[in-house]
Amino acid sequence: MASSAQSRGINISIMGRDFSVACPPEEQEDLQSAARYLDTKMKEIQKTGKIIGAERCAIMAALNITNELLKLQRMTTGQEQVQARLSSLQARIDEVLREAEGV
Length: 103
What we know:
The chain has 103 residues and is α+β, with helices and mostly antiparallel strands. It has a single domain, classed as Double Stranded RNA Binding Domain (2-Layer Sandwich). It has helices at residues 28-47, 54-102; strands at residues 8-14, 17-23. The protein has a two-stranded antiparallel sheet. Strand 1 and strand 2 (17-23) form a beta hairpin. Helix 1 (28-47) packs across helix 2. The mean pLDDT is 87.
């Protein structure tokens, strides 16, 4: 990550409120994308009418986004396990084929 000396402030808007956030130039696009995603999630929660107040919307959005992240991490872990098993099976197949060729 770039040092704070290389960071500069960018403006983002969430729920109609503007924020200036220090961010390295190479991460600005990702930060803006994250802000748009958070803004969308918070507005979706606000539209339900069940949650009142920006702070509560932010907490619910954070909880929902964290849940999405954890689901993706579990899926990735599962895919890594499948890939490791496939690699192991491929190695065994290669070994058997080498042995068969040596017969």
